[in-house]
Amino acid sequence: MRGARARPRLSRALAPTLALLLVAGAATRSARAENASWLTLQLSHRTRFERLWQRFRPAGGDDMILALRSGARVELRLAPLVVGAELVDSRAYLGNAATPMNSTASDAFELLQAYVGADLRDVFAAGALLRLRAGRMTMDLGSRRLVARNNFRNTINSFTGVDTSWTSRGGHHARAFVVVPMRREPHDRDALVDNEVALDALSSALLWGGFYRTPWLGWGARIEGYALGFSETDGQLATRDRLLVTLGARVVRSPRRAALDLELEAMLQLGRSHETTAADDVRWLARRAFFVHAALGYTLPLAWRPRVVALFDYASGDADPDDGVQGRFDTLFGARRFDFGPTGIYGVVARSNVSSPGARVVLSPLRALRAFVGYRAYFLAQPRDAWARSGLQDVAGGSGRFIGHFIEAAARFGLLGRSLLAAQPSSAANITVEVGAAHLVRGRFALDAPDAPPGGSSTYVYTQMTLRI
Asked: Burial code of 294-315, b = ≥16 C-beta within 10 A, e = fewer?
């Protein structure tokens, strides 16, 4: 899908994107002119170009993609009633036959959110807020490692159901939800390559959970605890018929100048599932998996506020494919860019069958500029299980564990400029420019595993610009 074939499709894609921006922009101008505090209107557009030299997946070769995402969101607040909706248009271009084109890249002109709810004050305690939402919505939960509204990825998870939270004046926060994950459509590769418009549908899965977070405690730390259940069966798409319960806890101390910060999170996952999505796979495997994340950082008392962080992540893998127990951790609907580097056409590892120590240095030389450089060593947690997201596995375990050395750097710069759609001269558009690069020096497993592509290191770069009004 290169050259002349891509250009007509790209020009057609700009029509709904421009229409979305113009309609939302006109409404934004009207609302700002009236200083309507009861109305929130937001619109955004992001363009990102990604380039990859030397795939580490079996297809080998180079890759590139142009990812566009536009959105418009409206929320009406007529206390205590809240009504909201959001449209998102996600499209991808310039890929080739081996580009990992799936519903994480394209979801054209989709109703991402449509919900009603209420914000009720002084419920159960003075100053408390009870927040109720029902309908289609996006969700972030805790660290975002299990449930997240995707930021880097071109498409965004959404759910339909009920979400309830309660927050006290003192900072206690409790939350409970029951939702059905939405199945992004289309899922056929040719339709995705053509960025065809198809409405997302309810999946054959159910996600439910409870979450609690304490106020800030001694030493500036807080604690989170949660339990999530997930079940799925074969519907319009074949599934692995998962039935999982994930229990977790997290301790966080936020970064501050001349002080230590930390994040410790542990999850235990139990249940059962099939090994594959094949119709004749009816063998149930017991699920016993776990995940651990640890980060210890220190912010130096210097002008650029350098923060040095030591990192470690471990997501269990399956030790023995024949023992009737599946030990591979399932990250469900979590995001992974902030732990493991850029996703998109890259995505070196997932939160599954991986052991990874690392370090990162974060710099903020200007208020609007944030940059970091990081290193991680990637190992398989279990040598007979798959390197998740790569398509590589050595069931005999003879290729070792070492995936490779991973080096990453990125910088983000935010600009505030006058908006072309603003009603007031002081109104501003938020423009963010981000660039990044990552390099994987492939280790023994990545070079020797069956179907591993020839060649050496894998290099990836991206540049993106985001406009928010």
From this structure: ebebbbeeeeebbbebebebbb
